[in-house]
Design the sequence.
């Protein structure tokens, strides 16, 4: 349920769960849906993103704090091969022993930030999207217990931080920018929160979640 108090929308776990009801994991973890606006991307870039991609899963961790829902994000280590130094959700490449990409997302979350799967209530899934590093990423949306204690793996994550869900759901906080790709400038939306820059694939996932929650 969503209530409106003094013009501020308050989101609840029940409302989010209802919005994501009926969503499913893709039949194939490599089945992608191109992001909005991708038709304007350069042809070589679209061909690259629609080629053979490696399945991956990330958890979109929502924490039910006493005051409001927050979204947990990580600052990736500068030493990583892919997406070094960027803000992202916990997650990674699907391994052979993973039952599916949900298992991947939960395993990687435990490894990166120490949240065990029994403290995550999976509420649904967002569309699988491609990344320029060659992955087909399925976001798994989960409610995380507020008493979860983080244990950061410093080889992969510099630190973790939380952003109010209401901030990310408010289009008034969108920062519109452009990304230069070959001879084109591609419009992008990112978020700036207390010195953190949330952009790229992570911002796309947040926008996808917003569309589902706000029925846009």
Sequence:
């Amino acid at each position: 349920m969503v209530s409106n108090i003094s013009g501020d929308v308050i989101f609840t776990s029940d409302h989010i769960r209802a919005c994501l009801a009926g969503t499913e994991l893709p039949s194939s973890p490599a089945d992608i849906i191109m992001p909005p606006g991708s038709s304007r991307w350069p042809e070589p870039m679209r061909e690259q993103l629609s080629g053979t991609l490696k399945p991956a899963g990330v958890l979109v961790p929502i924490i039910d704090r006493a005051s409001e829902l927050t979204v947990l994000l990580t600052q990736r280590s500068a030493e990583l091969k892919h997406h070094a130094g960027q803000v992202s959700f916990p997650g990674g490449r699907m391994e052979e022993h993973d039952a599916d990409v949900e298992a991947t997302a939960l395993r990687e979350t435990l490894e990166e930030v120490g949240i065990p799967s029994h403290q995550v209530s999976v509420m649904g899934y967002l569309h699988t999207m491609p990344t320029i590093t060659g992955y087909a990423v399925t976001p798994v949306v989960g409610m995380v217990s507020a008493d979860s204690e983080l244990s950061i793996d410093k080889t992969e994550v510099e630190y973790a931080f939380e952003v109010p869900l209401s901030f990310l759901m408010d289009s008034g906080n969108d920062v519109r920018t452009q990304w230069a790709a070959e001879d084109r400038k591609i419009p992008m939306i990112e978020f700036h929160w207390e010195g953190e820059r949330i952009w790229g694939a992570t911002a796309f996932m947040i926008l996808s979640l917003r569309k589902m929650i706000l029925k846009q």
User: Anything to note?
Assistant: The chain is about 20% helix and 35% strand. The chain has a mean pLDDT of 86.
